[in-house]
């Protein structure tokens, strides 16, 4: 029995449902950001973040900063590349466009490799692009929240190391960290940018960025000063190192309550092997996708290899739009998200299946959602005479 | 009787003690950031922010963004001034230095007008500086958290309008909004940058910036694109306008729980006239400062006109450092802050008296703090044989 007030079940691709203990951590009493108790909690949270990314390399460095996930792009764009240098953006939807705008803001020369909606650039296309120009970094969206497309991060990273070893591999993992397999050290990644409110299961308000020793080296030996003050690695690096070494330190006040909530959820997540967590997300995703197919709905991502495991983006039947279906779901206590990709936003809906809704089968969230979807679709079709 | 777990009373210059209802808002169940219920709460919170600043000018615009107070400086430095343009920073301590660094990061040419520790630049000095160069903007720290110095925001703004009317007046109000009088429209200010965790009484994690129509005009007609992506006014302006007009909108996911907490505290604060709130902060501050003087302690700011009303920074008796006194306070259930200004950090301590500790006399926080201070000082002197 949950301690939370009764509410509809939130099954969008983030924010997601919270564990009671995580939410209670948000109501922690007032603390100084430099008091020993809080310093210890923040330091442990940084160490837990390493475990989340399955990283043991001491030269790798996690950053946890007050902000939305978007702030992580500024951290990459203002520290890991300099004005006039080349960046290659693998574009699989809305979030590729935004990353491009962020990189351009700080002066990078961006080349985009765009895939059709629901697809991802092939390794052959990426290899060709990498051979045409010297890129300081390449970015890819692990799971594009707008389309549910899963990119092959491991494969792309291997390719980059073979073809263009000096190019930094930057992953937008906002909608993947905690639900998709990521082996930060083993895959030799340089930065994974994420946020607290998706598969990590914490309320929104934290930008979380994991960086490699190579990335830190790049940031601290650049020719020109970083392009941002608030997102400057030089400003935050000593702070993160001090907190993890149990020493108070100040650049900007950390959001103490959110750090407690992150500490709680990461303690829960890392108490079991990450492989187990990925396996259960895959298993639930497979059953959701089978059920969706049985309802006659097509996914935006047709290729199973390129389908995310923490969400499903599905086209509605011809003649129906999100406002025909979402209220029927809501009536049954379930919240899905409307489409987000500009070109087709009115033609599809998104179902997020991450975190406690997946790992705690006793909640019954997924079964409830699938029943509600079936009924809401039937109702909407009938209302439209389809 | 508080619903919060027993804890020492936090009386530093932010974060501060929370009202129970505010803290309970932090544990709000999961919500979509574009759901009608949340859109309404966020929109109302923006409208309440106008009331906090006593602003009724519809061309003025509040911004509430996931981040620390520091992020507001990036918003100013990357939108309201362009590369190579001049900025005048009135420096009264640690936070003037930081604002200078932030402005320089985005390419402004910064001139600093530095006052000795505990002092503030005089209106005559400021007038002279304004006549020497054309400044795009002037910044001043309303209350410098490192020294407790209060700047004369109204006087400086009047002076600027008379001498250099096109210069934007930018106030760092992180440690003043909610405890010091601010009449945004009447004083004709252009931006006040603040944060959630000081006299506003909300947990940390929100950057709050109030801007004038003139500032918005400057930001949206600049010659070069804004220097930041995450702190870009162009990116956030339509979002804030839409939310306040009850329309969902997306640039980056807002921290939904913190917005609820801010809504709760701003509803409480604005339920009574702001003048009343300022008066009680002044009254409590006067009695704190009288008690401190009775203990034989000198303030960093000797001039009563330049003393903040939400905090008191006091030199320790010769021979004592913060580690001699702060543990004695803690033993008595009270937390003060150590010094922050580099040059004299070991010689003084800071007492924050803001928010519920001031407005809710039943808590007894201030009396408890003054007794604890008296006893801890006596104990420390005795231990040192002073």
UniProtKB/TrEMBL annotation, chains A, B:
It is an enzyme of class 2 (transferase). The keyword Transferase applies. Its EC number is 2.6.1.44. One of its GO terms (molecular function) is alanine-glyoxylate transaminase activity. One of its GO terms (cellular component) is peroxisome. Pfam families: Aminotran_5. Substrate binds at residue 350. Its cofactor is pyridoxal 5'-phosphate. Keywords: Aminotransferase, Pyridoxal phosphate, Transferase. GO terms for biological process: glycine biosynthetic process, by transamination of glyoxylate. The keyword Cytoplasm does not apply. Residues 38-341 form the Aminotransferase class V domain. Belongs to the class-V pyridoxal-phosphate-dependent aminotransferase family. This is alanine--glyoxylate transaminase. It comes from Penicillium frequentans.
């Amino acid at each position: 029995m949950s301690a939370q007030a009764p509410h509809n079940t939130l099954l969008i691709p983030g924010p997601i449902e919270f564990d009671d203990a995580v939410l209670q951590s948000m109501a922690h009493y007032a603390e100084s950001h430099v008091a020993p108790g809080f310093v210890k909690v923040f330091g442990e949270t940084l160490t837990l973040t390493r475990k989340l990314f399955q990283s043991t390399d001491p030269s790798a460095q996690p950053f946890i900063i007050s902000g939305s996930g978007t702030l992580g792009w500024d951290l990459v764009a203002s520290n890991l590349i300099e004005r006039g240098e080349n960046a290659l953006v693998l574009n699989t939807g809305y979030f590729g466009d935004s990353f491009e705008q962020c990189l351009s803001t700080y002066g990078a020369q961006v080349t985009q490799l765009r895939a059709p909606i629901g697809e991802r650039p092939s390794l052959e296309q990426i290899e060709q692009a990498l051979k045409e120009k010297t890129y300081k970094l390449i970015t890819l969206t692990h799971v594009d929240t707008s389309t549910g497309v899963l990119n092959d991060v491991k494969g792309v990273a291997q390719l980059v190391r073979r073809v263009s070893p000096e190019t930094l591999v930057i992953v937008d993992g906002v909608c993947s960290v905690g639900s998709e397999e990521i082996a930060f050290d083993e895959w030799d990644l340089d930065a994974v940018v994420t946020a607290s409110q998706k598969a990590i299961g914490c309320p929104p308000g934290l930008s979380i960025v994991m960086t490699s020793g190579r990335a830190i080296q790049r940031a601290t030996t650049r020719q020109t000063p970083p392009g941002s003050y608030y997102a400057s690695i030089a400003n935050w690096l000593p702070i993160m190192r001090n907190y993890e070494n149990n020493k108070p330190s100040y650049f900007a006040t950390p959001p103490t309550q959110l750090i407690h909530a992150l500490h709680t959820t990461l303690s829960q997540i890392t108490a079991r092997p990450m492989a187990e967590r990925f396996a259960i997300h895959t298993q639930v995703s497979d059953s959701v996708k089978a059920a969706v197919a049985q309802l006659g709905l097509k996914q935006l991502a047709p290729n199973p290899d390129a389908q995310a495991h923490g969400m499903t983006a599905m086209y509605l039947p011809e003649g129906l739009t999100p406002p025909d279906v979402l209220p029927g779901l809501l009536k049954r206590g379930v919240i899905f998200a409307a489409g987000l990709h500009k070109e087709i936003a009115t033609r599809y809906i998104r179902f997020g299946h991450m975190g406690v809704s997946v790992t705690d089968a006793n909640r019954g969230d997924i079964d409830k959602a699938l029943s509600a979807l079936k009924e809401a679709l039937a109702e909407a079709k009938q209302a439209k005479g389809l």
